[in-house]
Amino acid sequence: MRYLTAGESHGKYLMGIIDDYPSGVNIDIDFVNRELGRRQVGYGRGNRMKIEQDKVEFISGLSQGSSTGNPISFLIPNKDFKNWNDKQEEPLLNPRPGHADLNGFIKYHQHSIRDSIERSSARETAARVCTGALAKLLLAEVGIEIFSYVDHIGGIGIQKPVKLTSGLKKQIEGSGLRFPDPVIENRIKQKIGQAAQQGDTLGGSFTVIATGVPVGLGSYTQWDFRLDAIIAKAIMSIPAIKAVEIGDGFQSKNKAGSLFHDEIFYSKTKGFYRKTNHSGGIEGGISNGQDIIVGAVMKPIPTTSKGLKTVNIKTKKAEISLKERSDVCAVPSASVIAEAMVAMVLANAVQDKWGRDNMEEVKLNYQLWQDYYRNI
Ligand code: EPS
C-alpha cells in the first residue's frame, strides 16, 4: 500500500488516498474512528482538540464494508474551518524557532508564514492515523498487533522495556498520558501543568511494539529494503520527532557484543527462539520473529505561549515568535501516530512478501510460509 495526504490545518477537510490496498479486508469504520479519537486525547493537548471530534468519511474503494482493491479515498472534516473560513489577517512574519515557518517562507516564496503553518501543522497526522487504522486491520488478519506507551516526558520517566500484560495495556489506554506507572504519571502531569503556566512546552519519548510479527519481513539485499531503515524513515516523518531507535538502540553503545546480541536456541516445541530481545525484532534488516520494538524522541513543541526570540522576516528587527494556540505536550498523541506509521510499514512488508491484491490470497501465502518455517 502507498498513500498520500492533503489538506491544511484549518482548511475544510484533511484527505487521504490509499492505493494498492488488498481487496477483501473488512473495514470497521467504528474502529477507524476510535483510532482517530486515540490521537486526539492526552493530558497537555490544546484547545483545538475541544473543537474537533475527528470522524472519517470514505469516498471510494469500499463496498458493503469491505475493500475492493480500488484506491481508497477519505475525508476528515476540520470543524474549526467555519471559524477560519473568512478570517482576514495581516501577513505573519515572526517565525517560530523549531517550526517550518522560516524555511517554508524562504523555500516557497511566501508572503506570510501562515502558508507553512497550515500544512506543516501536526493536524495532518489525523489522515495518517486513518490510513494506519486500515493498515492495522490488514495486519490483524495475519495476527500482527501494534501498541504503544509513553516512557518519558519532560525529563521524568521509567526504565524500558516494560512488560506489557493485557491488564497494563488497558491501564495505559485509559491513562491520560499513555503512561505505564500512575505514580510517576502524576508527577509528569504536575510538570505539564507548570509548563503550561509558564507558557512553555515539553517533549518526551515513547515506545511502539508490534507483536505477532513473523520471520522474513524486509531484506538486506538493498539499503532501502531494510525493515529497520524503512521504520526509521516513517517515524522520523512525524512532526517534532528528533531520534528513533530499534530495540536497545542508543543503549547498545554501552554493551559488549557478548551481552548485546540475542543468542539463538532451539527446541522442538518452540523452534528457533531467543531469551532476550535487545535487537528489537530486526536483524540484518529482516524481522526475526520477535516483537518489533521502536523507540522515538519528540522535541518540545515549538509553539510556546511565551514565545521565543526571532526576527521579523521583512524588517529584520528582533521580535517574539508567533504565539498561537497549541499543545503543551503531545507525546501521547505522537505515540498513537507512530503506531500508525509502523502499521503502514509492516502492512506494506506483509504485502511485499505474501501478495498485494487480495486478503485471502495473502493469508494463504502466509500459511504456506508458516508451514515452510515450521519444517526447516
Ligand atoms: C493539531 C492541531 C493544531 C495544533 C497542533 C496539532 O491545531 P491548531 O493549530 O488549530 O491549534 O494544536 O499542531 C502542532 C502541534 C504544530 O506544531 O503544528 C492536531 O490536530 O494534532
Question: In words, what does this structure look like?
Answer:
The chain is α+β, with helices and mostly antiparallel strands. Helices cover 34% and strands 20% of the residues. It has helices at 29-40, 48-51, 81-84, 101-107, 114-120, 125-140, 166-174, 182-197, 227-236, 257-260, 331-354, 359-374, and strands at 2-6, 13-19, 57-60, 62-63, 66-67, 72-77, 145-153, 156-157, 204-211, 241-246, 264-267, 271-274, 282-283, 286-287, 292-298, 309-311, 318-320. The strands form 6 sheets. It has a 5-stranded antiparallel β-sheet with strand order 8-7-9-15-10. A 4-stranded antiparallel β-sheet has the order 1-2-6-3, covered by helices on one side. Strand 1 (2-6) and strand 2 form a beta hairpin. Helix 1 (29-40) runs antiparallel to helix 11, helix 4 packs across helix 5 and helix 11 packs across helix 12. The chain is globular. 39% of the residues are buried. The mean pLDDT is 96. The site of ligand EPS has 16 residues, from loops.
